[in-house]
Design a protein that fits this description.
The complex is a heterodimer of chains A (560) and B (249). By secondary structure, chain A is α/β, with parallel strands linked by helices. Among the domains of chain A are: 106 residues, Flavocytochrome C3, Chain A, domain 1 (Alpha-Beta Complex); 114 residues, Up-down Bundle (Methane Monooxygenase Hydroxylase, Chain G, domain 1). Chain A has 15 helices and 19 strands. In chain A, the strands form four sheets. In chain A, strands 1, 2, 6, 7, 8, 9 and 16 form a seven-stranded mixed β-sheet that branches. A five-stranded mixed β-sheet of chain A has the order 17-15-10-18-19. Chain A has a four-stranded antiparallel β-sheet with strand order 11-14-13-12, covered by helices on one side. With 249 residues, chain B is of the alpha+beta class. Chain B has two domains: 99 residues, Beta-grasp domain (Ubiquitin-like (UB roll)), CATH 3.10.20; 129 residues, Orthogonal Bundle (Fumarate Reductase Iron-sulfur Protein, Chain B, domain 2), CATH 1.10.1060.10. Chain B is 37% helix and 16% strand. Chain B is elongated, with a radius of gyration of 22 Å. The mean pLDDT of chain B is 94. The chains are: A alpha/beta (560), B alpha+beta (249).
Chain lengths: 560, 249
């Protein structure tokens, strides 16, 4: 065993760091393990902001925040989990401020809040358009201040399960080479989403759903895997995200006739309808030939140079670099792109999974606060509040239990399995499979879903999995072997893709991000007001169901 | 699609050389795309660090045609079509392999800077103007291109007692936090080695976030140190005291 801890947090983004800080403050010996240096995590790319009912810009309350979130989720979010989030959010945001996070301000010096999609009040606190980056820096400072050890550039590959509980992780040491076992009384998976399985994704290259797949492989159910959110404003060239803050500031969406087409889809909220609604509207316009080379236009020009430079400076930089467009003078071509996975590892409100000792939080988890559609600004809030809660419970559990064991047989078995992959010389290169997965997921499991395409995609993914059995890694070395880690990531994504398609086929209705206009155009609360739960059954996904938790908001028709 | 030639440095601490590759470049491609294409199709064992592909994570720093740059933010069409694009690792840091360097020296320096701590009795009301003052500094993505180009660090193998431009920016962000109650001027003047910076502004030139490191972070910090440490009146008293001591001995 390379190391032994009370709590091991896998993933160094906002959820992971917040969990680690909480566990440390409760007195646990905690460590972070991540395939990246923590500040390189994809949390840092979050631009727009973090939602909490501070009431600084208007009368607001946690209850209103909860209602907007419930409605935004298309009633698939668990209302108990949503209430926890919205009630704890204000104090959690002020805690970040006490740690040095400086948010943009109101004229009287309080934290400013701006309107975001589908929010009844201006509720999104922000640090210009680099909110995620600012929070990552501040939390990393808290990690450093506590001297929390970090296994940096360690690629987590397997969970250690012994005596029917999770007792650690087996990871590949990227810099030094070799498999390392790290024992822990509790493990928190904070590994983010699997957006890279899509061609055209805002996600960083590291977002390959590692934790979800690791959990799946030890029998932990994944919840609502069909719910992949497509963000309405991404750049065609490389999927880079253009923040919802643009529309929060008043930007228009135009089709090729310069018409604000949202008037046909969400006449009240217009560009600030929820993300699923806007993405579908854009895709409908593009499919009907009213787009421009597969894009619609995001027009900021009327905001004026001064406001753009002040509030959307980073966005302007991105547009200029990656689209060769200066939004002060020209509209930005944008289209929907895979952005955030509402689904994930099934947890309760303390981040607990079905496996004792295993916790999850953030995008890797599904608690579920986002249901079928996440509201902008709620993801950052979830990382903080549910990171804290997972850290809290994992630490308490660890402090009341004494033993950790990583069976040597498990280490040997993992080493053999990896060696087999490395030794293979005759077969297919991983990137071909990866590329096919990404383009077919985009085509067959995107903004709109059709039964025949989903069935075809199931077969395609099954075929790719068979080809993956003979995948070949050319780099046989120990030091920074990208070839090997990309092959392992591909293995994770293939299994997750199959879970997503299976869940999508099972949900015969349209709800939030799961839109089936051709066969089941409406929401069906009688039969599908429930979560999909996928487990791995002899190498195949099996879909079970669990009812949505409703506390006070009965499902209603959802219009914006 | 057009053919583009790249020379990529291959090797490790024991030695290496540039290897030439040719790829089919698509519209809008950046150097990181090209390097990934090379890795995918021609050099499967090429080691590169990457993540966000959007100039936000600071992973993919390298020297492109001799200039420190983020590979993900360098468009191929910014270079003349006939030119071979030469990509090599940051030279100021120890090499791990190919384009990957060991930048952990920076993370160790970072730990030596006292974190934010609020002044006692802070009311947590902050003016937007105060936020604006520090906003430039917190854009830093820690790509360490400024550290790479800084001759104080680069030409002396990180052995001189200077934290480097990145950490002058970090200290500036902390010092200009309107509610911060920690004084880091002694640290900067001492082990931080700010005096070693002779304001050649190379760091500002390579910053992908456009932070004016020298003008807006380092020079104001130098001035702050002068203000706090070199009060002319205090200086006069010290000199007099020294003279008197000499007189007595």
């Amino acid at each position: 065993m390379e190391g032994k801890h009370d709590v091991l947090v896998v993933g160094g983004g906002l959820t992971g760091m917040r969990a680690a800080v909480e566990a440390y403050d409760l007195g646990a010996d905690v460590a972070i393990l991540s395939k990246l240096h923590p500040t390189r995590s994809h949390s840092g790319a979050a631009e727009g902001g973090i939602n909490a009912a501070l009431g600084n810009a208007s009368e607001d309350s946690p209850e209103e925040h909860a209602y907007d979130t419930v409605k935004g989720s298309d009633y698939l979010g668990d209302q108990d989990a949503i209430e926890v989030l919205c009630e704890e959010a204000p104090a959690d945001v002020y805690q970040l401020e006490r740690w040095g996070a400086v948010f943009s301000r109101t004229p009287d010096g309080r934290i400013a809040q701006r309107p975001f999609g589908a929010a009844g009040e201006p509720r999104t606190a922000y640090a210009a358009d680099i909110t995620g980056h600012v929070l990552v820096q501040v939390l990393y400072e808290q990690v450093m201040r506590r001297d929390i050890p970090t296994y940096e550039e360690y690629f987590a590959w397997k969970l250690v399960v012994d005596d029917e509980r999770c007792q650690g992780v087996i990871a590949w040491d990227l810099l030094g080479g070799g498999l390392k076992a790290i024992g822990a009384k509790t493990v928190i998976l904070a590994t983010g989403g699997p957006g890279r399985m899509y061609a055209g994704s805002t996600n960083a290259y590291a977002c390959t759903g590692d934790g979800m797949a690791m959990a799946l492989r030890v029998g932990v159910p994944l919840e609502d895997m069909e719910m992949m959110q497509f963000h309405p404003t991404t750049l065609a060239s490389n999927g880079v995200l253009i923040t919802e803050g643009c529309r929060g500031e008043g930007a228009y969406l135009l089709n090729k006739d310069a018409e604000r087409f949202m008037v046909h889809y969400a006449p009240n909220a217009m560009e600030l309808a929820s993300r699923d609604v806007v993405s579908r509207a854009e895709q409908t316009e593009i499919d009907a030939g009213r787009g421009i080379e597969g894009n619609v236009l995001l027009d900021l020009r009327h905001l004026g140079a001064e406001r753009i430079l002040e509030a959307l400076h980073g966005t302007r930089e991105l547009a200029m670099t990656f689209a060769h467009v200066d939004p002060i003078y020209e509209p930005i071509p944008v289209r929907p792109g895979a952005h955030y996975h509402m689904g994930g590892i099934d947890t309760d409100v303390w981040g607990r999974t079905a496996l004792e000792g295993l916790y999850a939080g953030g995008e890797a988890a599904c608690v579920s606060v986002h249901g079928a559609n996440r509201l902008g600004g709620n993801a950052l809030m979830e990382t903080i509040t549910y990171g804290k809660r997972a850290g809290h419970h994992a630490a308490e559990w660890a402090l009341s239990h004494t033993t950790v064991a990583v069976p040597p047989s498990l280490e040997r078995e993992s080493e053999r399995e990896l060696q087999m992959l490395i030794d293979r010389t005759d077969g297919e290169r991983p990137w071909k499979i990866r590329e096919e997965l990404a383009t077919t997921m985009h085509d067959n499991f995107g903004v709109f879903r059709r039964e025949d395409q989903m069935l075809a995609q199931g077969d395609i993914v099954q075929g790719l999995r068979e080809r993956y059995e003979r995948v070949v890694v050319d780099d046989k070395g120990d030091v920074f072997n990208n070839d090997l880690t990309q092959a392992l990531e591909l293995g994770f994504m293939l299994e997750l893709a199959q879970c997503m398609v299976a869940s999508g086929l099972a949900r015969k209705e349209s709800r939030g991000a799961h839109a089936r206009p051709h066969d089941f155009p409406n929401r069906d609360d009688v039969n599908y007001l429930k979560h999909t739960l996928v487990t791995w059954d002899d190498g195949e996904p099996r879909v079970d169901w669990r009812p949505v938790t409703i506390t006070k908001w009965q499902p209603q028709e959802r219009t914006y | 699609m057009t053919a583009r030639r790249l020379e990529i440095w291959r090797g490790d601490a024991s030695g290496g050389d540039f290897v030439e590759y040719e790829i089919a470049a698509e519209e809008g491609m950046v150097v990181l795309d090209a390097v990934r294409e090379v890795q995918r199709t021609q050099a499967n064992d090429l080691a590169v660090r990457w993540n966000c592909k959007a100039a936000k994570c600071g992973c993919c720093s390298a020297e492109v045609n001799g200039r420190p740059r983020l590979m993900c933010k360098s468009r191929l069409d910014d270079f003349p079509a006939t030119e071979t694009i030469r990509v090599e690792p940051m030279r100021a840091f120890p090499l791990v392999r190919d384009l990957v360097t060991d930048v952990s020296w920076n993370y160790e320096v970072e730990k030596r800077i006292p974190p934010f701590a609020a002044r006692e009795g802070a009311d947590w009301l902050i003016g937007q103007a105060d936020v604006d003052r520090m906003s430039e500094f917190r854009k830093c993505i820690e790509c360490f291109l400024c550290q790479d180009v800084c001759h104080v660090l680069r030409e002396h193998d990180l052995k001189l007692p200077y934290f480097g431009p990145r950490f002058m920016v970090r200290v500036a962000a902390l010092e200009m936090h309107p509610l911060d109650g920690v004084d880091r001027t002694d640290l900067l003047h001492g082990e931080g080695g700010i005096a070693l910076c002779n304001i050649t502004k190379c760091c500002s030139d390579v910053c992908p976030e456009g932070i004016r490191i020298t003008d807006n972070a380092i020079i104001p910090l130098k001035e702050r140190i002068v203000d706090r440490r070199y009060d002319p009146l205090v200086g006069l008293v010290r000199r007099l005291a020294r003279a008197m001591r000499r007189g007595h001995s």
